[in-house]
TrEMBL record:
<dbReference type="Pfam" id="PF00202">
    <property type="entry name" value="Aminotran_3"/>
</dbReference>
<dbReference type="InterPro" id="IPR015421">
    <property type="entry name" value="PyrdxlP-dep_Trfase_major"/>
</dbReference>
<feature type="modified residue" description="N6-(pyridoxal phosphate)lysine">
    <location>
        <position position="266"/>
    </location>
</feature>
<dbReference type="GO" id="GO:0030170">
    <property type="term" value="F:pyridoxal phosphate binding"/>
</dbReference>
<keyword id="KW-0413">Isomerase</keyword>
<keyword id="KW-0663">Pyridoxal phosphate</keyword>
<comment type="subunit">
    <text>Homodimer.</text>
</comment>
<protein>
    <recommendedName>
        <fullName>Glutamate-1-semialdehyde 2,1-aminomutase</fullName>
        <ecNumber>5.4.3.8</ecNumber>
    </recommendedName>
</protein>
<dbReference type="InterPro" id="IPR015424">
    <property type="entry name" value="PyrdxlP-dep_Trfase"/>
</dbReference>
<comment type="similarity">
    <text>Belongs to the class-III pyridoxal-phosphate-dependent aminotransferase family. HemL subfamily.</text>
</comment>
<keyword id="KW-0963">Cytoplasm</keyword>
<comment type="pathway">
    <text>Porphyrin-containing compound metabolism; protoporphyrin-IX biosynthesis; 5-aminolevulinate from L-glutamyl-tRNA(Glu): step 2/2.</text>
</comment>
<dbReference type="InterPro" id="IPR004639">
    <property type="entry name" value="4pyrrol_synth_GluAld_NH2Trfase"/>
</dbReference>
<dbReference type="InterPro" id="IPR005814">
    <property type="entry name" value="Aminotrans_3"/>
</dbReference>
<dbReference type="GO" id="GO:0008483">
    <property type="term" value="F:transaminase activity"/>
</dbReference>
<dbReference type="InterPro" id="IPR015422">
    <property type="entry name" value="PyrdxlP-dep_Trfase_small"/>
</dbReference>
<keyword id="KW-0627">Porphyrin biosynthesis</keyword>
Amino acid sequence: MCATNEEWFTRAERLFPGGVNSPARAYAAVGGTPPVFVRGEGAYVYDVEGKRYIDYLAAYGPLILGHAHPAIVSAISRAAAEGTVLGTTTTYEVEFAERLQSAIPSLERLRFTTSGTEGVMSAIRVARAFTGRTTIVKFSGCYHGHADPVLGDAGSGTATVGLSHVAGVPAETLRDVWSLPYNDPETLRTTMRKRGERVAAVLVEPVVGNFGIVPPEPEFLRTIHEEAARAGALVIYDEVITAFRFAYGAVQSLLGYTPDLTVLGKIIGGGVPIGAFGGRRDVLELLAPLGPTFQAGTFAGNPLAMRAGLALLDVLAKENPYGELERKAIRLAEGLTAAARRYRLPFTVNRFGGAFSTHFVDGPVRTYADARRADDRLFSRFFHGLRERGILIAPSKYEAWFTMVPHTWDDVEATLRAAEDVFAELARIA
């Protein structure tokens, strides 16, 4: 039996391209060998060598309640005992959809998928069917899953592994997707007024989570909605990261805008694979069997995800943890910033609610171009310094830190002490 992380990862490399089943898990951007994990409990994960880490990766966002929350474990166990997939409509998917609709009023109709990628893909398809147009406007650095049309100029995983063009995606597929700068209302306004009649939908992360956490500037969101309405295009919010992360419901309720379509994923499954898309009734009822737009999924609405999701919403509604999550994120963001300043390092933290991102760059990070300027070498050393001290974050300068319900204030202070040590080391080499 293998005993070390290196031995286990060597086995993985013989099986999976690059040793991973998602490139975001690789250490291509930071170097070194990834640890191989065996379990998670609350705010912590444990590798094969028995080392414990305070986890801010949170599986890239879904684990707002932490690992193996008793309510989620119980719900999944009960569901598995009664059948993991039935291939029919179940009471649980009806109940869960009703709960989501109550929390997110813009979901007049919705449909479940098994991933956020499928949700985005399906929302684009139905938007094109509704408008009779083909062009999608998206924004540089925003990641919307790995479906062909949205992989151009994407952030997150594609940026981490250095892919400006993804082989296997036909150029003609990308010609119908225009990628514009995020937080640049003037470029969007000019584009929509010149060629808006070709646009089926404007697709946006209302709060970016894929080149760091980047909140929208008020004029930018306003321009999206005004220009889409003027052109007869739909607005699609990708809330795969943001829904139920910052409030009970979608972030659109905090921002004051109502999109035509919304895509969900990550948190709503309670740690089980899930996606969903929904919105205006007149748009969604173009889907088969009511309409001519086909979309399907054998495992969509499966009982494991539905019951885990219901259990998750029960806990979030009862505990309302968002204020505490934000307070911990504020303490981390302010503590990290103060420590970096003490050592005269270029460093910027972006935060929204209980999530934040760290950027080794001077000045604000408002756009993908700003995020790309961050120092790769400093981030890599920062990442490994934290990991050596038992702090787990994503191995990419483009990803976010997420606070989780089980993080304690002792965890927060331990993290800041570890970061202080790492910043002291960085100052000696910077």
